[in-house]
Amino acid sequence: MARSSLFPKSLDVIGKQLDPIQSLWRNVLIVALEDAVGRHWKNKNYGSYNHHQQSAQEYFTHPNGDFKMVCTLAGFDHEYIRMKARNYFERHQDEKNM
C-alpha cells in the first residue's frame, strides 16, 4: 500500500515539487524585507521610518554571516539579494527626499 501524507505535496506553477526547508527560509527573508520596508503587520507606524525599520534595513545592507546563511538556505545568492535590497532602499530614500 502506498504511503500517503496528511499534507498535499507543495508544487510550483510548473508542477515541480518544492523543498519545504527552502520555502521556510524564503519566508524568513520575506518577513525581514517586510520589516525593512515598514510593511510588517506588527508595525504600528505603517509607512513611517523608525529604529526597527532601520535595523531591519541594516540586516540587508551590511555584510553579516546570518544573512549569507539565510540566503543560502533559501536558494539565493546573498550578494545579489543584498545589491537588489540596497538599490531598493536607496531609490525609495531618494523618493522621500524629493
Please tag this protein with its features.
0% strand, 4 helices, mainly alpha, elongated, 98 residues
Q: Could you describe the 3D structure shown?
A:
- This protein has 4 helices and no strands.
- The N and C termini lie far apart (66 Å).
- Helices cover 60% and strands 0% of the residues.
- The protein has one domain.
- The chain has helices at residues 20-37, 51-61, 65-74, 78-97.
- The chain is mostly helical.
Secondary-structure topology with pairs:
Elements: H1 20-37, H2 51-61, H3 65-74, H4 78-97
Helix pairs in contact: 1-2, 1-3
Tally of contiguous helical segments: 4
Overall, the morphology is elongated
Instruction: Give the class from helix and strand content and strand pairing.
Output: mainly alpha
Order of helices and strands: HHHH
Total domains: 1
**Any idea what the radius of gyration is?**
17 Å
Query: Which segments are poorly predicted (pLDDT under 50) over 5 or more consecutive residues?
Result: none
Number of strands: 0
What is the overall pLDDT average? 79
Please give the alpha-carbon distance between the first and last residues. 66 Å
Q: Tell me the major beta sheet.
A: none
Helix fraction bin: 55-70%
Percentage beta strand: under 5%
